[in-house]
Queue: 2 jobs
Job 1
Amino acid sequence: MTAVRAVRVLAAGISLAAALSLSACGTEKAGEERVAGAAARSGSAPATVPTDWPYRVDAKSPSPSPSPSPSPSASLTPTCPASGVLLTTDHGDGAMGLRTQTVTLVNCGGRAQRLNGYPAVRLLDKEGRPLELETDEGGQSVAGGVKDPGPRPVTVEPGGSARFTLVWRNTYDDTSRPAAVGVAAAVTPAPGAAEQRVTSPAPFDLGSTGRLGVTAWEQSSDG
């Protein structure tokens, strides 16, 4: 090999080595740039949180957002109707098969309420339909020992109350008639007054008797 050819071969080798070195440096630099870019994006970009995320975002750990304190429920206090009277019932008494339930009228309005004699009462089934029944004023046909004050004028001042009692027996001795069961009483306190529905804690289970005793209005002991 001549000296000139040897010099050319050596120069070509040096050029190839330089090119490979530059290529490797460029690849390494590009890789470093990609890694740095990914790290920068990971460190600076905020995490994406769904809009319906139920917790507060915290640097350490997610913790439940505080729930609002429940406000006192106004539904616990009965609302006074436009008529100015509110009817309620007690839990009743079913001793010896004789059922009794007291209905109390509270004057929650601003004027006196005048009652006289017996209220008009209908019993309603669970669909709100009236039961077919016979109403006995005084209740003596239901039970001889029913205490009925008898019809007389009763004035209920604002804040005062009056009451009457429903009486019936759970007797079923007529298989030709379905058992009558009511879940509410629709009461008209006096002629011309608005009818008001009262839900009973216990059913009005009249059996096959179809008879309901109603006592007259009387002043409540606390009214």
Job 2
Amino acid sequence: MPRKLNASAVDVVAAPKRRVPPKPKSLKDRIVSIVTESSIMLGAPTIKKKLVHDFGLVNSKAFNTNVNKALKELADDGDRKDFGKCGGSYHAGPTSAAYLAHVAKEQEAGQLEAYKREGRVLCYGIKAKAKTTKDRILFILAKATTLVGVPTIKKRLVEEYGLTESKAFNTNVNKALAALSSEQRADFGKVGGSYHAGDASAAYIQHFQGKASAAADEANAQKYMDQGCIQCCHCGEWCPGDCEVGEDSIARGSKYKCFACDKVFWTWISDGYTTGHEVEYKYSAGQLRISTFQLVAMFDFLKRPTLEDELFKMRFTAKSLVRNSKKCEKNQIAQKLKLKQAIEKGNMEGAKIYAQNAIREKTQALSYLQLSSRIDAVAARVQTAISMGNLKSNMSGVVKGMNVVMDSMNVEKISKTMDQFERQFEDLDVRAAYMEGAMNSTTAGATPADQVDDLIQMVADENGLVIAGQLDSAGAVGSHVPVAAPAAAQATDDLTARLAALRKA
């Protein structure tokens, strides 16, 4: 009788570990492993993407060159049985699943051509008679990978079914498309003036994804444009306003230097300074197709600038001043940081220099901002004058009258015309004063003084600021009346005395 063995007496032999094959190190071996694992044929872009994803390679110019070189050498090596090329795609040899699937597809395509010659088509995997225009259109849309328009549908009907394009043919196709559009079909759909094979088709999915991507890109671009950024035309990066280095040679745009690619580009006045261009603005470059009227307007030096032109220049100047003010504020922050570092190092002389620089940048920023505010105020007055369109019509008649009486040199007529001219300006001053008073009263009524004071006090308390006694001295908004300076009054008296002396002479 055999002796029983205890479990403790049996030598337990560990199972051998499964050996994991090492990853290939050479580029050729990596490419062969990628096409071997794939069940379909792969193109060069897919192979490069898998190399980056699976092996952690960096996509660069040298990487693309090496991959293309390795693919060419593998394809030219006729002794290899584990690599092959068909058209622009690659597979793991004639016995691979990818190559066999490709051969089967080619055979199916040949069978499909036979079905076409017999008047039948293979639509959705079902052999069906395709004798009606509707069925033929559905088959064309089922094969399409993009949205198809009416002209393309007619062209493919003529090419694939041997139809003759005529007036009756166009009428039948339009009727078939209208009938399909009116039906609630899962294998047919319409987007704008194009058609697809339903919401689950590759054409519709690609269109939807492209539309969503375009909307996202547009929203992203609008976000950068709202921040005052300009897109570089060389590398596509969005450059902030700090990248501006000056104006072009004819003052019709700005010059920028990209922070990413370090290349120079320009903005043009013709597109509102919103797009980067490789060259500075020129009349021939900004307007490639110039009509006769545009040429006349472009070189009409006798034409005087209008109020709208002056308003545009004022607003552009004010915007430039605000941009310069922001630059000074950033420089001030940088100088303060250097000041802090100098104090930490005990460099008091350098700290004084940085402090002076910070104060100078702050003063310059305030000066730019004040000047921009003054220009905005003048622009508002000009906008008011433009809005009051009746002033232009009234003044035009007066100016014409002045030209006539000046030519005649009739003193009485000149006096009457000048009186009328001054009366027009008095009317303008009265209207402007009335509008300003109405706007001030409306603003004061819409924002009660107690609510304004409460808001200021709340903000001060939140930030630990002390404003005791300052609100009472400030008064209400718009309540201060400007007082004429003594120097201005003295200058007026001097002018009056000179005018009296001239009259005596």
